[in-house]
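your task:
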Amino acid sequence: MADLASPGLVDRSGAGRTSVEAAALAVGFSAALRRAGVPSSPDRAARLAEALRLVPPHARDPLYWTCRVVLVSSREQVPVFDAVFDAVFAGTLDPADFRGDQNAPPSIGAEPRTRPTASDNRPAVAAEPVLLPQPPALTPGGDGSIDPDAPERDTILVTAAAEERLHQKSFADLAPDEVARMRQLVRRIALATPERVSRRTRKTIWSAPRLDLRRTARAAQHTGGEPVRLVYRRRRTRLRRLILLCDVSGSMEPYTRVFLSLLQGAVAAAEAEAEAFIFSTGLTRLTRQLAVRDPDQALARAAASTQDWAGGTRLAESIRHFTDTWGRRGLARGAVIVIISDGWALDDPDSVRTQMARLRRLAYRIVWVNPRKVALDYQPVVGGMAAALPFVDAFVSGHSYAALAEVAAAIRADRSDTHENTRTR
């Protein structure tokens, strides 16, 4: 097993076995890459630290591929990465050296790259260096042979980079094959709501505000009538109901194909109680249709349940229908309500304002997801959006898979929490 010479790798066993200080290694190596010209954000350093905790490397080869998959996002960065990796883990460079030193040597990566030997699949020191040209898949070994594992490793790298680009891509710009992949990813998102205190209680032996007299008296029968052991009652907690209202009008059509999978995943999940509705010129409840586990069957049943697709948007009428038919009967009381719409409505703004005020009095929180919010010059001045915004607790975009993290955080937040993407007036 190769010895790993790096300030982030320390020997704690006393027997020569090398263990990883994941955080120190990730920060130091990321800083070295950044000085060499490879973009390396703190977020990637944190991901590398987590990866090293999950797969502690005890040799250079697994360490190399763990760092490369996490920190490299394009083939052009591979030669510089290889040079930095050799300099750091061959012991020729300490990432903590030269920190702030104006007389430090030039950035790593400007040096020539050396050829790998046949015993190691990564660059190693050789007599005749070559410049930084070839991708690893085409780099010959010391005996002139091609590395047989290089194409597979390059495939892993390219796949990781493509996955990252897909996460940042807007739903409206997805190709048909990307839409299928995105639906699979979105269905796995767990939308957790805040907890609420239930009226039901459970017994506990720990001190609680309420003493359970009945159980205490029953326990005293086993101790001669003396209440030696006190039994308390504590209120149960459960997740708040989640209600999703998705706009399927013509202006939202590029995003609807993905958001329906988000609704299906939330309804089919067993962790929390969720209700799904779609609206355009009218409102349709899809909870029962989307509750099946098979996503294709769920979407087919949802499509067959209504003809109200890609039409106009009657926002105020749809909210009124929901409040009168389901909300006032208890479905929306204390619930987290998520409205997915761009706010382009045919209704009068005063009607939207009136219906949102009614909904606000019933709901615990209202989260508005508007994919058009991501535009730099976006202003919520459209009639329906401007009228609804004062009653919204969180206003987020949700235009991409990465942006759905803001949606999940807004749903999970407590009413007293100050979310960074709250409404702007």
Summary: The two ends are 61 Å apart (CA to CA).
